[in-house]
Amino acid sequence: MSPPESPDAEPIDADTIRETVRLVLAFTSSPLDLEAMTGLHETLRGHVALLLPGARDDADRLWRGGTTWYQRAARLDGIGRQSEQSLPTDPFAALVQVQLLARDTEWLLGQQTGLPGGAPQGCPTAESV
Fold first, then answer.
1. Is the peptide bond before 31 cis (omega within 30 degrees of 0)?
2. How high is the mean pLDDT in each 10-residue block of the chain (129 residues)?
3. Cβ 17 vs Cβ 109: under 8 Å
4. Which CA distances in Å does 64 have to 79, 100, 114?
5. Is the dihedral of CA 105, 110, 113, 115 positive or negative?
6. Are 41 and 101 in contact, with CB atoms under 8 Å apart?
7. Is 47 exposed, middle or buried (0-12, 13-18, 19+ CB in 10 A)?
8. Per-residue model confidence (pLDDT) at position 12
9. pTM for this one?
10. Cβ–Cβ contacts within 10 Å for residue 118, how many?
């Protein structure tokens, strides 16, 4: 997957996304700060909104009869649903949700080709099967 080509598309800042994920995964101190988690949750939702379309485009290039496509499509659908959920008011439940979304964001970033640490260009496509 390559960075967005549309002039209106927001560029992918991998370092900022990685820093947000790092902050969330390090967020385990007590007492749990629901306000801080709410801000991180909104930031992660923005990162997911930026990364998800390109990941879906890449999945659409896979052979739709294969398990790779099915697994990728299912994971992307799950990430989309998770990012749309509102943050629970219980601090521990909010922490779990934010950390899961951070891991999904990290996985999405790892799927990006053309970015440092992104996926290699050699993913199987419908044309190569």
1. yes
2. 50 92 83 92 97 94 93 97 96 95 96 65 46
3. yes
4. 19, 27, 24
5. positive
6. yes
7. buried
8. 87
9. 0.80
10. 17
